[in-house]
């Protein structure tokens, strides 16, 4: 007869590791299964290898899905301070960067190693490099049968924490949702997010790769119903031009809500007002002998923005005019181009470049307190496999850790 465990966890990411630590700490016989040769691979590369593990400002409003309120209870119980303490108790220190992002001061691989060692010392068993074939639930003894490539095991309780298809290079797949679907769970199709945009071949700003600057960016919601407009945020962070489009934190954030054929509005000069600057320039030319108003618009704007961007952003008929000679209509055009530039991406890059994916298991069929299935008792889902996706900035790792606590709190 296959060996029986109190809890079997499918998936050795941040959620699975946290679940294993908490379960084994309570004395439950625990088995952690992963199809990779090592666990926590996504954790190891997060934040450029220094794990952006949480954020100073955690709120359900930083998460997206069909039911944005689903995460509220768990995030309230396991807030930023709670997760910070959990990580620091392993002997790590955190440093705060912009927008409240909290990073490890040591490589994230060391946190992975510490978490794994903790789970093992507490009695967690491992089954790595194991393909998960199927999961069934016996009607006779109420146990799950977990069919692996090389063996079968029984589980009194089962956590599925197999993530999403994002970043398949390190094991991202749809296996988890396929298992949940076999139990009758509704699955919302995955979509790659936190990913760069591809622009059309004839885009007027092609060829600016390497240029980076702070912007304000948002979805153009003017054609959307008012209720939907309120769901879209504006982000103030860096944009990077690439060889085939745009990237950087600004684009990764906006990709969360972007859909095909949606336009994006970019403010290239978010901290200043071009109208006021032109007015000041003209006033200065009238009150001094420096004759600033006689300088060309191109030269004036090149002091505010990268010159290569200005040369492609502003029509030559305006760029080569003197500031003092600009008409009201030309100033309006200039203002629109700088403060409300409309970009129309042809697509976003796929799962191989996505840091996360929206969609997953419909949260309607899971407890928002314990993450237990409302369809199958003793079945839990954790982390990115659920239709809960955080913004860039430590929110997704925080959700993964928090889920590990929530799923094991009432075992």
Automatic annotation (TrEMBL):
PANTHER family, sorted: OS12G0638800 PROTEIN
Family matches, as SUPFAM superfamilies: FAD/NAD(P)-binding domain (SSF51905), HI0933 insert domain-like (SSF160996)
Protein name according to UniProt: Flavoprotein, HI0933 family
Domain RsdA/BaiN/AoA(So)-like insert per the UniProt entry, residue ranges: 192-355
InterPro entries on file: BaiN-like, BaiN-like_dom_sf, FAD/NAD-bd_sf, RsdA/BaiN/AoA(So)-like_dom, RsdA/BaiN/AoA(So)_Rossmann
Organism: Desulfovibrio litoralis DSM 11393
Names of required cofactors: FAD
UniProt lineage: Bacteria, Pseudomonadati, Thermodesulfobacteriota, Desulfovibrionia, Desulfovibrionales
Key words of the record: FAD, Flavoprotein
Pfam families noted in UniProt: HI0933_like, HI0933_like_1st
Coiled coil region boundaries: none
Domain spans labelled RsdA/BaiN/AoA(So)-like Rossmann fold-like: 6-408
């Amino acid at each position: 007869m296959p060996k029986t465990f109190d809890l079997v966890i499918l998936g050795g990411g941040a959620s699975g590791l946290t679940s294993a630590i908490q379960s084994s700490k309570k004395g439950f016989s625990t088995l952690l299964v992963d199809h990779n040769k090592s666990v926590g691979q996504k954790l190891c590369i997060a934040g450029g290898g220094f794990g952006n593990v949480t954020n100073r400002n955690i709120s359900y409003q930083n998460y997206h899905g069909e039911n944005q309120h689903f995460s509220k209870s768990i995030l309230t119980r396991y807030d930023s301070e709670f997760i910070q303490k959990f990580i620091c108790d392993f002997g790590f220190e955190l440093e705060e960067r912009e927008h409240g992002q909290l990073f490890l001061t040591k490589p994230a691989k060391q946190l992975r190693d510490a978490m794994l060692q903790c789970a093992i010392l507490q009695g967690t068993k491992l089954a790595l490099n194991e393909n998960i074939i199927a999961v069934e639930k016996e009607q006779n003894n109420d146990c799950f049968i977990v069919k692996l490539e090389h063996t079968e095991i029984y589980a009194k309780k089962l956590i599925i924490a197999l993530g999403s298809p994002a970043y398949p290079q390190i094991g991202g797949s749809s296996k988890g949702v396929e298992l949940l679907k076999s139990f009758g769970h509704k699955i919302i199709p995955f979509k790659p997010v936190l990913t760069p945009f591809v622009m059309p071949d004839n885009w007027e700003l092609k060829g600016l790769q390497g240029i980076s600057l702070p912007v304000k960016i948002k979805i153009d919601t003017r054609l959307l119903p008012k209720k939907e407009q309120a769901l879209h945020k504006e982000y103030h962070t860096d944009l990077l031009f690439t060889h085939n489009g745009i990237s950087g934190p600004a684009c990764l954030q906006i990709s969360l809500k972007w859909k095909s054929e949606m336009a994006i509005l970019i403010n290239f000069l978010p901290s200043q007002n071009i109208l006021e600057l032109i007015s000041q320039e003209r006033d200065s030319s009238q009150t001094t002998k420096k004759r600033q108003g006689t300088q060309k618009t191109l030269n004036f704007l090149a002091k505010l923005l990268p010159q290569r961007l200005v040369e492609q952003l502003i029509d030559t008929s305006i760029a080569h005019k003197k500031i003092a000679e600009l008409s009201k209509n030309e100033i309006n055009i200039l203002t629109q181009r700088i403060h409300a530039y409309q970009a129309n991406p042809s697509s976003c890059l796929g799962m191989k470049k996505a840091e996360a994916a929206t969609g997953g298991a419909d949260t309607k069929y899971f407890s928002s307190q314990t993450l237990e299935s409302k369809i199958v008792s003793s079945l839990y889902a954790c982390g990115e496999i659920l239709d809960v996706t955080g913004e860039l900035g430590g929110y997704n790792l925080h959700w993964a850790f928090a889920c590990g606590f929530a799923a094991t709190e009432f075992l």
